[in-house]
Amino acid sequence: MKQVRLGVIGCGGMARAHMRYFNTIPGLVFAAAADNFSANLDLVTEEHGVEGFTDGMKLIKSGSVDAIMICTPHYFHPDLSIAGMKAGLHVLTEKPVAVTAHEAARVEKVHAKHPGLVYAAMFQIRAHPLWQRIRRTLHNGELGCIQRVNWIVTNWFRTMAYYNQAEWRATWKGEGGGVLLNQCPHNLDLLCWLLGSPSEVRAFLSLGKYHHIEVEDEVTAYMTWNGQKKGLIHPKGATGVFVTTTGESPGTDRLEIVGDRGKLVLEDGKLAITQTHESVMQYCVETDEAFGQPGRDEITIATGGDDPGHRVVTANFIEAIQKPVTPLICSGQDGLAELELGNAMLYSGLIHEPVKIPMRRAAFDKHLKNLIAKSKFKKGKIRKAKVDMDKSFH
Ligand SMILES: NC(=O)c1ccc[n+]([C@@H]2O[C@H](COP(=O)([O-])OP(=O)(O)OC[C@H]3O[C@@H](n4cnc5c(N)ncnc54)[C@H](O)[C@@H]3O)[C@@H](O)[C@H]2O)c1
Question: Are 160 and 111 members of one domain?
Answer without folding.
Answer: no
